[in-house]
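Same chain as my last thread, 176 residues:
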Amino acid sequence: MTYIKSNTLFKNMRTDALYDSLPRPIVIADHLMTPENMGALIRLADNIGATEVCFLGTAPSNSMHKVRRLAASSRDNIRWYFSEETDLRRIVPEGKTIVAVETSDNATCIYDTVLPADVTFIVGNEGHGIAEPILSQCDMVTYIPVPGPTCSLNVTHAAAVALFEWQRQMRNTLTK
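reply #2:
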């Protein structure tokens, strides 16, 4: 077995062929507090092939260098921006289903939920999750079961689980 650089492996596998048949997702984050999570979310969205990342709230004026540094090369590969808009339908293109990744009384387990092909995922703030006025605008709410003693995930880890579960479901749909 020989190590292969990931760029070589995935280029040869043509993993982006998923988007020959499907629209690309959008990622929205509700008022993140840390530049580390912002940068990691930009990189994650680029990894999955999302079209953009929207950060609800204002840009952290004193730590944008950290956001850019942590996003690495992804900062130039994907559109990302900050918006104070509170009406998600003004941000999300028509036809996209807004799926919140959040714990709430009407949430369904992500592994039991059929995720839509044309999707926008929204994740919440590190301390308080998705604000109720934003959550109430979502078309679906799904949670990730966490069986360990710390029953919450870092926002970027939750986004990764949701995005790659979406990718898994879409690949399975296309191969049937």
